[in-house]
């Protein structure tokens, strides 16, 4: 069986983890945590990056920093992972879902403004498959209505929009380093902060509400409880695992892009015949080959294709069940406008295996079996 995903592994992870152990500091903000933060800052241009225990926790921190609270509303797509909504619901806010674009599966920027009410506090665009939302429009709307923009760039590390790194465009950006992502620390994430004035408050929230970070920098003579917060620091062991991959980010990027391009090239004849649709990447977007998906006719055809591929030793999967159709989505959110594409497109979409280490011949075999399904 060709699995859907294998966590990335470069080979220096164990060496760096052993070094973290020998440093006698394996808790948060050790040598490798700082190196990962610096790498993100250098490669994105964000004012500050803070490694976190997950992208979920990075988004929760962003909700803290944006002062999201009871009675507020946050606009986001329904076609996303639950964490995008959970971060705001946990603060007492309501999730307001709007429809997606059928081409990129990202939030439809043309529908956002109509969903704004006096209670709207933020917009949370999700860069699906590492392909950027239409950020110029979203930032312009947010500016006119005095809203925060919290980018869910969980899938967008090393992706760009008009040359700007995803996650560094809005007020806050959230990365994921889960084992299914291009770069992994098992479980982990990062918060990107655009405004330097937010950094100190973010450090306090991340350190259980204390000024512990200032204490270790020698800026205060003792640390104390300053505000509500939680423990969002990952172990430096996890950071050491991640940093080994960030050092080889271009190698991983190139390998994934090779597979992505291979799929696209070999499945293009099927798309030209109208059997399926291939991913759309707008000209202004630089993607990171996070995933390769196809869209088939309907739910029934997708289920038959999944079964056919598994019969041939290939583990392909679908993705999110739209949040607005879930029990929690109905309780804590609402869908604004018409669901023209969210449900329909989610039922057509199928993800093919794509990971660092997938061999060319395996990708060719997968493309061959997808093609043979229609034959």
What are the secondary-structure elements, in order, as H or E? HHEHEHEEHEEEEEHHHHEEHHEHEH
* Shape estimate: globular
| Class based on secondary structure composition and strand pairing | alpha/beta
The CATH superfamily label of the largest domain reads Type I PLP-dependent aspartate aminotransferase-like (Major domain)
Number of helices, counting only DSSP H or I runs of 4 residues or more: 13
Q: Can you tell me about this structure?
A:
It contains 13 helices and 13 strands. The protein has an eight-stranded mixed beta sheet, with helices on both faces. The model has no long low-confidence stretch (mean pLDDT 97). The chain has 375 residues and is an alpha/beta fold. It is globular, with a radius of gyration of 21 Å.
Give the secondary structure arrangement, pairings included:
Elements: H1 13-22, H2 31-44, E1 48-52, H3 55-65, E2 73-77, H4 82-89, E3 94-98, E4 120-123, H5 135-145, E5 148-152, E6 160-161, E7 164-165, E8 172-176, E9 189-193, H6 199-206, H7 212-216, H8 236-247, H9 249-272, E10 285-286, E11 292-295, H10 299-311, H11 327-332, E12 333-335, H12 342-348, E13 349-352, H13 360-374
Parallel strand pairs: 2-3, 2-4, 3-12, 4-5, 5-8
Antiparallel strand pairs: 1-9, 6-7, 6-10, 8-9, 11-13
Helix pairs in contact: 1-8, 2-8, 3-4, 3-6, 9-13
């Amino acid at each position: 069986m060709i699995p859907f995903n294998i966590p990335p592994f470069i080979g220096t992870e164990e060496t760096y983890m052993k070094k973290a152990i020998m440093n006698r500091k394996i808790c948060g903000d050790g040598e490798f945590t700082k190196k990962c933060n610096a790498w993100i800052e250098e490669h994105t241009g964000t004012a500050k990056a803070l490694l976190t225990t997950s992208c979920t926790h990075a988004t929760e921190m962003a909700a803290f920093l944006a002062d999201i609270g009871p009675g507020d509303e946050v606009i986001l797509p329904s076609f996303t992972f639950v964490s995008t909504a959970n971060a705001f619901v946990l603060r007492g806010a309501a999730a307001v879902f709007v429809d997606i674009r059928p081409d990129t599966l990202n939030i439809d920027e043309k529908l956002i403004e109509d969903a704004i009410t006096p209670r709207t506090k933020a917009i949370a665009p999700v860069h699906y498959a590492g392909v950027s939302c239409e950020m110029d429009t979203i930032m312009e709307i947010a500016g006119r209505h005095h809203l925060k923009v919290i980018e869910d760039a969980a899938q967008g590390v090393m992706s760009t929009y008009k040359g700007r790194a995803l996650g560094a465009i809005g007020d806050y950006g959230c990365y994921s380093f889960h084992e299914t992502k291009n770069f992994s620390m098992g479980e982990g994430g990062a918060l990107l902060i655009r405004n330097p004035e937010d950094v100190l408050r973010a450090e306090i929230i991340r350190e259980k509400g204390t000024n512990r970070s200032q204490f270790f920098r020698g800026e205060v003579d003792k640390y104390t409880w300053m505000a509500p917060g939680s423990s969002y620091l990952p172990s430096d062991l996890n950071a050491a695992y991640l940093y080994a991959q960030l050092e080889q980010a271009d190698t991983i990027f190139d390998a994934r892009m090779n597979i992505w391009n291979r799929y696209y090239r070999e499945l293009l004849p099927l798309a030209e015949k109208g059997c399926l649709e291939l991913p759309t990447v707008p000209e202004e977007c630089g993607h990171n080959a996070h995933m390769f998906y196809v869209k088939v006719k309907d739910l029934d055809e997708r289920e038959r294709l999944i079964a056919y591929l598994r019969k041939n030793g290939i583990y392909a999967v679908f993705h999110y069940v739209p949040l607005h159709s879930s029990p929690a989505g109905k309780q804590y959110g609402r869908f604004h406008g018409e669901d023209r594409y969210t449900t329909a497109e989610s039922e057509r979409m199928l993800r093919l295996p794509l990971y660092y280490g997938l061999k060319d011949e395996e990708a060719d075999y997968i493309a061959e079996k997808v093609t043979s399904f229609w034959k």
